[in-house]
TrEMBL record:
One MF annotation (Gene Ontology) recorded for this entry: inositol-polyphosphate 5-phosphatase activity
Gene3D superfamilies found in the cross-reference section: Endonuclease/exonuclease/phosphatase (3.60.10.10)
UniProt name for this protein: inositol-polyphosphate 5-phosphatase
Residue stretches of biased makeup (Polar residues): 351-361
Any GO BP: phosphatidylinositol dephosphorylation
Family annotation (InterPro entries): Endo/exonu/phosph_ase_sf, INPP5A, IPPc
Pfam families: Exo_endo_phos2 (PF22669)
Location of the region described as Disordered in the Swiss-Prot/TrEMBL record: 349-370
Top-level taxon: Eukaryota
EC number of this enzyme: 3.1.3.56
Top-level EC class as recorded in UniProt: hydrolase
Inositol polyphosphate-related phosphatase domain sequence ranges: 1-336
Family statement drawn from the similarity comment of this UniProt entry: Belongs to the inositol 1,4,5-trisphosphate 5-phosphatase type I family.
Length: 370
């Protein structure tokens, strides 16, 4: 953890950050607490040009003006300016000590209020298990955890506002279907462990061409003969197998993906574009948003280039994950647009309930923008 602390201090004092005169850094570093530790970190840097910024106090239930630079670590559970939770152990019983969870903060920029939620969902523990059925058991676990977060950030404790959810969702391609596509003309050889008779390896070979191995699959091995399929045209021909978000199509939105799968990249500094042969490459790292948040992001028709959803360091080693970013301009009056949408929906709902003879109170009929 000392390396993290040193990095943050150096970052805050760097020349590149001189114009960012306010900062809030939240680092979950209390690794001794198995009950609460998530290893998540959220850093927020505010430019000097932004004059009216407030952050929400979840305990006092009111906004406070953001001033100066502050770093919080160790026990984030007592920090009133965020909401943090670790997923219940029963969500992923295979892992004795999971670090998966989320951190939520709420911000007000002038008339616009929104939540920023940093999330880390469960991974695929075994390529072989992921291949067994479609959709995989791991997909179901992630679905349950993400649903848990969405329910938490839209419950009745606080006013509902637009929200952005970002981080390592660990979304994977449908392994069964991807393998069937990549190895459509290959034959499969099953290798079992001598002591347990459980499947240990799956080897897919071409039917001719000297029976060349097309794909070698093990618990932590995904060695495909042609990695270019994941890079050509940003791998978008495989997006049809990226299905995990479809379950939440009524609650979450995403801009068009125009970058290659973000994981698992080689950690060799000389191989910035190569994938490791550990997992099937997938778009694990995403930035998602509510419908009302998408309304904030949508650019005016005369500013076509103000919204960018892409990765960082496409040709440079960035670790096993390529960071993904969303850049957009929040135009003046964006918050009012959301308020107008809320007013229109409220009036429409009231008219509908009045025509049906409903006796419900107005605040029971409508929840603010989501």
């Amino acid at each position: 953890m000392s390396h993290v602390d040193s990095f943050i201090k150096e970052l805050l004092s760097s020349d590149a950050m001189k114009e960012y005169n306010r900062a809030r850094v939240y680092l979950d570093e209390n690794y001794k607490s198995q009950e609460h530790f998530t290893a998540l970190g959220s850093c927020y840097f505010l430019h000097e040009a932004l004059k009216n910024i407030q952050q929400f106090d979840f305990k006092a239930k009111k906004f406070k003006k953001v001033m100066g630079k502050e770093i919080y670590s160790d026990t984030l559970e007592s920090t009133a300016m965020l909401e943090k939770a670790k997923f219940p152990q029963e969500y992923f019983p295979e892992c004795k000590w999971s670090r998966k969870g989320f951190i939520r903060t709420r911000w007000a920029l002038g008339e616009c209020t929104f939540d920023l939620v940093n999330i880390h969902l469960f991974h695929d523990a075994s390529n072989l298990v992921a291949w067994e059925k479609s959709p995989s058991v791991y997909s179901g676990t992630r679905q349950k955890a993400l649903g848990y977060v969405l329910d938490r950030i839209t419950d009745q404790r606080y006013e509902k506002v637009p929200y952005f959810i970002f981080g390592d969702f660990n979304f994977r391609l449908d392994s069964r279907q991807v393998v069937e596509t990549l190895c459509s003309s290959a034959t499969m050889q099953t290798v079992r462990a001598a002591d347990t008779n459980e499947v240990d390896k799956l080897i897919f070979r071409e039917t001719d061409n000297d029976r060349k191995v097309v794909l070698h699959l093990e618990k932590k091995l995904f060695s495909y003969i042609n990695q270019d399929v994941f890079r050509e045209n940003n791998g978008t021909q495989l997006l049809e197998y990226d299905k995990e978000l479809s379950v939440f199509k009524d609650r979450l939105n995403e801009l068009e993906i125009a970058f290659p799968p973000s994981y698992p990249y080689s950690e060799d500094c000389s191989q910035g574009k190569e994938y490791m042969n550990t997992r099937c490459p997938a778009w694990c790292d995403r930035i998602l948003m509510s419908s009302s948040a998408k309304d904030l992001v949508l650019k005016p028709e005369n500013e076509d280039k103000t919204v960018i959803y892409n990765n960082i360091g496409p040709n440079v080693c960035m670790g096993d994950h390529k960071p993904v970013f969303l850049s957009f301009r929040l135009t003046t009056g964006a918050g009012k647009r959301c308020q107008r949408s809320e007013k229109i929906l409220r009036e429409a709902t009231l008219q509908d309930h009045t025509s049906n003879g409903s006796n419900a109170k107005p605040n029971e009929l409508f929840q603010p923008c989501r």
